[in-house]
Write a structure and sequence with these properties.
- About 50% of the residues lie in helices and about 10% in strands.
- The chain is mainly alpha-helical.
- Strands 2-1-3 form a three-stranded antiparallel sheet, with no helix packed on it.
- It comes from Marinobacterium weihaiense.
- Keywords: Membrane, Transmembrane, Transmembrane helix.
Length: about 130
């Protein structure tokens, strides 16, 4: 039997030392500690250090997007009234906008992948610790 904290908001089971629910983010300071059989129980482990790298990657994504928007605005062709500007003049600006959006998506995806890999590692470690005598 292992002791777990149960989230008062969503009912998820956390490791005993958890400070907040990894499912809904509710503080677990006054959460009820219950004993749970390890057979067939899947728990969400507390992952407080994972969001740091995820935040950095999300920040890089936002910076990439803003840089793409800035370069797009800088390269956007301006023509005097009545003069037609062809599509080829817009392509460099649109390319930079596309690259900024793609980098933003890429960084956000890496952040999410690392976050979930950290959650899996912590959950496996806590399960391993609880099964050792």
């Amino acid at each position: 039997m292992a002791k777990r904290k149960q989230c008062p908001q969503c009912g998820e089971l956390m490791v005993q030392g958890a400070y907040q629910c990894s499912n809904c983010g509710t503080s677990l300071e006054n959460a009820e500690v219950i004993e749970v059989s390890e057979q067939g129980v899947v728990t969400n482990a507390n992952v407080t250090s994972a969001p740091a790298l995820t935040s950095w990657l999300n920040g890089l994504g936002v910076i990439s997007l803003l840089a793409g928007l800035f370069i797009t605005a800088t390269l956007w062709p301006t023509a005097p009234r009545g003069v037609q500007v062809g599509l080829q003049f817009y392509l460099p600006a649109l390319l930079w906008l596309f690259l900024g959006v793609m980098q933003c998506i890429l960084f956000a995806s890496f952040g999410a992948i690392l976050h979930y890999l950290k959650r899996i590692a912590v959950a496996a470690e806590s399960k391993e610790r609880s099964t050792q005598p």
